Amino acid sequence: xxxxxxSSADIVNSNEIKDIFPGLKPYQVNKVCSSLSSKxxxxxxxKGVYLIQEKPSNIPVIKNAYKIALAMFKxxxxxxxxxxxxxxxxxxxxxxxxxxxxxxxEKIIGEYTLKYVAMGDKATGMTYYNGVYVSxxxxxxxxxxxKPQYGGGYSTITxxxxxxxxxxNEFLGYFGLASSSLCQRTGYVLDLxxxxxxxxxxxxxxxxxxxxxxxxxxxxxxSSKGKYIKEWMVLDNLGKENILSWWYHG
Length: 250
Description:
alpha+beta
């Protein structure tokens, strides 16, 4: 009877079951959930939160990994996962990125890896889209430039930006308190993209040029060898053809 009442949902928590069946005591709800879990009708995501299965299964059958990721811990879908939600990349990543304020961890659910990335005060700029909380398009690109390894790398990021409809003023706003090195790296990559495709406004590049301060590497932990770009005071240790590989090679 309890399963029939909750089976139309994807995820349920024990408090919701208590609301549906107010006559049940907490220990009875826990006992029922434990029984349903042992039979494969529920899969425990965390204490009191369960993934509901249409048919009993020994492994979780996942219909919406984004909802599951947000049910685990508070945050918003970000980085390459947000790019996918906005149809800016055409493959389905099996790592789901969630931006949080202060929690970094990984958890494997079925075939998906849920990766939580702590961003502190930068964990802002989300909207509600397609049933989940996700970074806005502009904030998605800020986050990707901030941690490009989670955005799929510069080639993926520049291709997505080329296809995106972005609010440049919002995008620039997130760099207000960013480091000069982040602004230089971002400006340099945008300059390459704009030079090849003309999609980056000149005033956006001028804004980043005003933030140039010290020498920096495009990949901070990468090689010390590469091409030094005097205009941006950036050592490009990745290479223009790698950054824009989709443009040059299709």
